[in-house]
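Sequence in, structure out. Go.
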Amino acid sequence: MAKKSELWEWVKILLIAAALAAVIRFFLFTPIIVDGESMMPTLEDRDRMIVNKLSYKLGDIERFDIVVFKVSDKKDYIKRVIGLPGEFIEYKNDTLYVDGVAYDEPYLDDYKKEYQQIYMGGSLTPDFSYQVPEGHVFVMGDNRRFSRDSRDYTIGPISVEHILGKASIIYWPIEDFKIIN
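Output:
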């Protein structure tokens, strides 16, 4: 009788652990694998990250957050928030302007220099302007010349309702472990 009771205790422990893991993954955190080079140099192809699903339930989306969003039932993208709802964004001479105010993008500094050396000048981000609709954000990959993002009419601005969460921790490969600002 004692063995049966002990077995039942182990079964309960395993069921509770599985339920907790499912709740954590479904509601709080989930892993994602970066697919492609659109976020280089910040993120590399095949980097594994943790997506915080709770972040935007408790706080607001901020400019330059790296977010994961739904593109279709089978596809999620990871990009950086550049424009917030209702803002007018513009790129001129590789500089971001939001409602007429210039913003620094220090995460692109080294990449801009490298790009200009390789391509003998020219800008990493081609000039454009865009009015972000209310309830949406404008996202871009850090690899500006080779990113499908809000500039692409098939993606466009992202509804805040389609954002799954904020990605800020690379956990694999282990030598690249870091928290992304």
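Check: The chain is about 25% helix and 30% strand. The chain has a mean pLDDT of 85.
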